Every structure is written in C-alpha cells, then in structure tokens.
Amino acid sequence: MKLLLSLRFTLLLLLGACASLLTAQKPYLGDLSYITPEEQRWVDSVYQTLSPDGQLGQLFMLRAHSDRGPEHIAQVRAEIERYQVGGLCFFQGTPEKQLELTNIYQHLSRVPLFVSMDAEWGLGMRLPDQTISFPKQIALGAIRKNELLYDLGAEIARQMHRIGVNVSFSPVLDINNNPSNPVINTRSFGEDRYNVTIKGYQYMKGLQENGIMASAKHFPGHGDTNVDSHYGLPVIAHPRARLDSLELYPFQSLIRYGIGSIMAAHLQIPALDSRPNRPSSLSKPIVTNLLRQEMGFTGLVFTDGLEMEGVTKHYGNGEVEAEAIAAGSDILLLPESTPAAFAAIKRYLAEGKITQDAIEEKVRRILLAKHRLGLTRATFPPVENLRGELNPPEAYALKQKLFENAMTLVRDSDGLVPITGLEKRKTIAVHVGLAAPTAFSTRLDDYGKVTHLNATYGVSPAERSKIIDGVSEDDLVIVALYSDGSRFLEKVPVGPEVLALLRGLDAKARLIVTVFGNPYSLSALDGAGTVLMAYSRDEVAQDAAAQALFGANKIDGRLPITASPAARFNAGIETHPVARMGYAKPEATGIDGNLLAAKVGILAREAMARKATPGMVVLVARQGKIVYEEAFGYHTYRKKRPVYTNDVYDLASVTKVAATTLSIMKLVDDGKLDLDVPIRQYLPDVAGTPLESLTLRPILAHRAGLRSWIPFYQETLNPSKKPSSQWYRTEPTGDFRIPVTEKLFLHRDYVDSIWHQIYTNELPNVGEYRYSDLGFYLMAKIVDQVSGYPLDEYADRNFYRPMGLTTLTYNPLGKVSKSRIPPTEEDKYFRQGVVQGTVHDMGAAMLGGVSGHAGLFGTASDLATIFQMLLQEGSYGGRQYLRPETVRLFTSRYANETRRGLGFDMMQLNPKRKMNLSPLASERAFGHLGFTGTAVWADPVEDLVFVVLSNRTYPSMNNNLFSNLDTRVRLHTAVYESIQREDVLVALPPLDGKAR
C-alpha cells in the first residue's frame, strides 16, 4: 500500500527558509537515483580501485572517540588501513582532539571518509560545555516560525564543516505520543505529524543546502515506545493503517523532499514483519520492501548503532551486520566487531543470502554520496582557532532567538503576562531545584527589584511556611521549576511538597509558574492559573523566559505535546507587548492574503525574469502586525544563494529617514536642535562658507540649494582609473585607516578634503527643490557634534538597540554573516570588486561606511518596525521614543511642496512627475526610496507599512529596469488592491506610472 501525503504537507512549499550564519557551501542532493556523467566517471574510477575487501569496507562506519587513549586510536587506525572502512562516527572528547584525529584518519584512508556525529541539538550533544547546545527538538516543536529551524540546520552545518564532519544524524522524525518514552521524548518535535514533518523539513533543508548530509531517524518511528532500544527490543504493535497515517508520515514526506539518508531503528513491528524478535533494522520487508520500494527512498540507509542490545540480544557476533546488509541497509553503524562482521558477510555472499550485485549497488551509492559531499579528496581543516570558530557570537544569537520563539504561555487566567506595574507591588522569585543566582534570577533583576528565595523539590513544611509567610496579598510571585538536568528527559519532579507550596502561594498572591524542563511535567500543574513553558534549564532558555515575562519579547509558542486536560497540544496564548509589532494572517487585518500573494508573486517574477533585479523581499504590515513577508529569487543571477526574508540589504537612501531623520527628530525633541537656526551654530566649521546661513528645515526638504552629490572618489583614482596608492592601501596601516571595503583603506587626510568640498559648495538653486545627498552628510555631522556620538552609535543607542532591531546597522560585516547580505554591485570603476557587506554609495564608503545619506543595512522586518513606531506616533514597546507632535511635524508635507516632508518622501502630487509610490496610497503616506532598489512606505490612513528590498544594482548600477518597470510602485499598489473593500476596483498602473 502506497503511503499518501496529506494535502496539508504542501504548506511546506510556502515556507521560506531564513538565511543562515554560514558561508556558502555546495548543497547536498539526496536523491541518488540519478548520476551525472562527471559523477559517473569518478564513481567508476574509484570503484575499480577497490578490492573485494575494500568494497565491503565502504559499508562500515566505526565508533570513534577523542577522549580515549592510544589503544583506541590505534584500533581505529588499524581498521581504516586493514578494512578500508567507509566512515567514522564521533562521540565524546574535545573539538580540537576530534579534528586532529579526523585529519589523521582522513590521511590514512584511500577513499575519503564519511565523518558523522549525533548533533540533534548541535555539536554540544557530543561535546557539551565546549560547543553550543541548541534547544532540543521538543522546544523547537513549539516554534511557529519554522524558518528558524533552517537557520539552526545551517549553523550546525557550518560548525560541522569546520570540525571536519559531513553527516549529521538528525533530524529526529519520531512522533512522540508516549509520555513514558525513555529514549526519544524531548528529542522529538512532538506528537503532531504535520508539526514534526514541517520542522524536520526545515532542519533537513538547512543542513543539506549547506553541504551536510541529513539523516532522518529512527525509521519507521520510535515515538510510541516505553523501552529503550539501547537495552531491549521495543515492540510497536500498531496496525499498518495507523503506521501509515502517523509514524511513517514524516519519513515519507521528507523522502519526497530529498532527505539524504535514513537511519533504520531496532524495533519489532509485527504489522510489517511478523517474525519474532526481528528488529526493523534487520528486516528486508521493512528496509527494502517498505522503505526502498513502497516509499521510494533513493538515499543512503544507515542502521542504528549495532552495539545496542535491542539488536544484539537475539543475533550472534557478526550475524547482526550480515543480516542488516541482507535486509537492505547500506551502512553498518557501530559494528561490534569488524572482523566478525566481515567474516559473516562473506559467508552470506558464499551462501547466496547476499549477492555481489547488491554489494556493488551499495558501494556505488555510497561513492556517489561522497562525491556530492565533496569527498572526492580529503580536506584537512586547521585546528587553530577552532574553539572560537565553533562558538561565534552569531551562533549564540541564533540560540537565543530559538529559545525566545519557543516560549509558550500555556494559560494565563489572571492576565499577568506581560508583567507591568512593578513599582506598585513587591516581586518575589522562588527558585525550586536550582539555587539562585541563576540566569533567570539575574535577568529578572534587570527589570526591577526582585527578592529571590531558594527551595528544593522536597521542600519541608517549615521551609514552605517560611516562604508563604513572607508573601503579602498584592505581591507577584514567580516560581521557577528547574529540571534535574538529565540529558534526554530533563525531568521536573513536581511532587506533593511542591504542589503544597504552589497552592499556598496562589492563595495569598499573584502567581506565575515557569517550567524549565520537560513539558510532560505540566500534567501535575493543572491547578496553576498562569504557566509559562520554557522547555529547558539551559541558561539561554532562562534568559529568554525572563524577558518574555516582562514583555521584552513576544510569546508565540504552542505546546508540541498533550500533557494533561489543561495542557493540550497546540495550547498557547500569544502575547503582544505594548505597541510592539506582531504577526497575523492577512485576513485578520482586512487583507485578502491569496490575492496579495498572487499579485506580489506575479510582479516579483516579472522583475526577475526581465533581469531588473536578481531577487527581492516584500513585506506588508497592517494594524501593527506583519501579514506578508516573502522572499523571491536569488542574491545574484548565478542562482546559487536564494533570497530569504531575513537577508540584510544595503538600504541606500532609506538611511536618510531610518537613521538620520530619526536622529534629528530625537535631538529636536530633546531641545538640542532648532530647525530654524543657522547650522553654523551647530557646525562652526561652516562659518564663512556659503553654507553658514542654511537652516535644517529646508535642508530636510531638499530646498537648501545644495548640489545633488559630489563624486569624491574620482579624485582618488590614478590615471588607470584604479585606487591611487597615494590615498589607498589594501590593509589598515599608518594613517590608511578608513575602511572603504574589507580590502581597501583610505588615508585619513582625504576625509578633510571631502568636508572641504561640501563646505565650499556653491548654492545655485536656493529655494528650489533639488534632491541632495549633501544635506544629509551635514546632518550626520551635526548629530555627532551636538550629541557627542557618531550617527551610527546615536541611532543605535536611541532607537535600534532599545527596540531590539538587531540587523539595522552600519558596517554589518562582523555583526551579520556575509552570506545573508546580497551583493550590490560588481564595481569596476572604483573598488574593483564585488561590493557585499560594505555600503554601495561611494561617498559613504569613503567615510568608513557611516554617513547621513547612505550606509544603513537591515532586514525588511526591522525596517518595518521603525515605521510602525512612527505610525504609532513615536511609541513602541511601552516606550515613547519621539513626541507625537514631532512625528506629525516631520511626516507632514513641507509648505508648498508637492512631494517632500521633513526628511521623509511623500506622494508626488504633481501629475507631470513620475509617481514614486502607489496612487492608491493616501496623501499622508510617508517613507523613502533607495538607490539599490529599496523602498519603505507607511500610511497612517490605512495603518499600513510596506517594504521592498532588492539589489537591483547587481551586477551593475546602470541597470535601471527596476525603476523603468515601476516595480516598487506596482507592488505597493498590489497591497492596496488586496485590502478587502467593495467600493474599490483598480488595476495595476501601466509602466509609465500614470494612474488611469
């Protein structure tokens, strides 16, 4: 019977994977049913060099440790040389020793080795306290932003490449619906087949698109067991129909989407193989008939560890391995005895139980997989700087993000979350199972004065009374229940003593219970009215929980399992911190989501097909919620790196409003700037120059008479039109310290020349409208002079950092993975290379990347958040960043102006001019366009934010098709056309931009 995919799984096609923290790697293609001519030549050439023993050796993957002594190392070396084994699986040790041994073992092997690890929650699963442990899959199952699992897979892939590993035994696709499961439990994404499938797909995609083979385990499904297969043979007694609809569903789905390998578990499943004590890993009906033939799997099949008692109890030494090969597996993981296994397999060959053709097919499949992993020759990553490169800040940021998104408010009957009004009541935190100070208690302290008390799970009556007596009626009590720290289960042993404490506290005060461990522990907490599930006592989870309780982060998680009648699958309350951007379906805000997606998709594909831009991100937010965020195309026309919604773009002139104008508004608010005072009061250097009498108001409206721009870089080129050695060096040295690119540094003295040219600029158009960058150069310097902080730091301190906007930044390299930043141009006129991660604008680059007119980078969502704050008249997250009257002043039209506010662009009212935004927008809409193909518009009438980010300037800024097609205007119009109202029927505007 063929296993059918539910139509719901087609949702996977709509899930956009976020960008990773990883440098580009060749994707691993898991379908081994086809082979290219080049692959065929390599496979043939290698296969022909293998002796019969060498062929068998490719089927073996040995256990390897880096914490064992010379005897173990010598044994591994000997088996590599004697049996030409195909791979190793590493366990405990240290990263440095593991890589050192990997390089030694690869050097010894005639054919490069598969090197694998169990890295379900990262390298920390096998190398704890030395490498990062990401959240376990039960916590990931709570996350609604599935694209984060792509990021996780991609970062684990990056770390694996760095340590010489090429196969990850993850994701776990077991559907855990047995709370007593002793071995899967928190390693599963949960009990729902769709959730498990989607999460597993994103994780797999993150690994394989970044060059690591993923392995789905434990086939055909280990979730509904109460026996650990390390110590016995679990029995799955369900009928075939149940297996098809539940256990097999995620495996079938990921097979369709190219999973590279599958691990066959040690399970007895009578419905699939009725022979007694026949593990599924040794079952031809299961491995060959079901997995290969029925389900159509074309990748590699690994056995689960063959040392496990679930398989060794019933079969003799060497027989296990021979039976596994006969059943259809390709690779024997952790054989008990390589010599015995070799002997048994040869005996099976002689007896006809295994054919030579079957061995050849397996070996060729293995060699093809090695080719696709780049194992045509061994590589030897350096040990130097390994620890730091396995533990970069970006990876910890990802871990934090994962835990933040996993937080699940199971229930909140009294509406206590987010916590507010701390000044009105005493806050007490009771830590059970782990004594404060903890990461949780430390973070709680950051939000106000908190009294911390400690207790054990066996809290005595006297201790309980002391705690309860110290609580007053109006107090807020936060009880933290920490797990016992067990590796897989993270048990939270809530017994009668703890329940008595909780009842006593609940009777006297406002009570919030936070659980740092296994979600099945919720079964004992049905009496608690407010419960936050944090899934782990990991310090990052503790930190994320504290921030969530105080409203710093949105709580968005959903329970991935059912623990009790009051804690069922998918339970979870979504909190919206005061005035913070949220997420919703388009229909929830009056937008037809299908219509919006169709219109935007057509326009995006048109732009890419016409080569107006290689890719783009489009975002729509309405009523304070992001309702549409989609990525299209690729970073370049080479189509190697897809665009993801969290890619970081050069925002170009959007900098003028998202950094400079904001900063000017803040200084006006603070009484440090007057828009109508000559700028010489703030910039003494302009005294005696043509600029001395200019004021900020006309500068902001582009009516100060300043030239549009000055090509400063041209004077720094030599006669060959290359950067002159008089002004540049390829490394920072001496006074050559201004970073123009990663490999081009300008002499400090030339910065003075830039300012001199600006200051001495004549004003040929005073009072007339002329769009000018020069005024924003000046305003950046004014911010610096008046505030004492350079523009980038001032904007970061006053807006980006407190608002939590992690990608809005100048000079993103070092803060954001370069792979997330689409290149903006192949510069052949100045920088002589690809501009990626450094500002495209030449003048801004010559100022070290920070200027008032350009230099800001960011994602669509962070940019949208800035404009949501402006729509909310300066308020965001419970904080007033700007006064409402200041926001209204700057976002209102300048006197007698058809297009400009103060700093902000607005709808062009002159019908003779080209339209700059949708003709359906209100005249109150404000925003800006950017040279690189960016745009952001906020419409107070519709409570609408629209963002489009692209790198239309790649490979050449002379490509004007993006503007000629009016892509930004037409995309903006598509949003308005998707708003559901009966009285508006419009079509996309024609290419001339004129409304009909």
From TrEMBL:
Thylakoid among keywords: no
Query: What Pfam families does UniProt report for this protein, alphabetically?
Result: Beta-lactamase, Glyco_hydro_3
**All residue ranges annotated as the Glycoside hydrolase family 3 N-terminal domain in the record:** 55-367
Catalytic activity entry = Hydrolysis of terminal non-reducing N-acetyl-D-hexosamine residues in N-acetyl-beta-D-hexosaminides
Q: Does the keyword Hydrolase apply?
A: yes
* InterPro entries reported in the protein's UniProt record: Beta-lactam-related, Beta-lactam/transpept-like, GH, Glyco_hydro_3_C_sf, Glyco_hydro_3_N, Glyco_hydro_3_N_sf, NagZ_Beta-hexosaminidase
Keywords, in A-Z order: Glycosidase, Hydrolase, Signal
Q: Main EC class of this protein?
A: hydrolase
Name this polypeptide is given = beta-N-acetylhexosaminidase
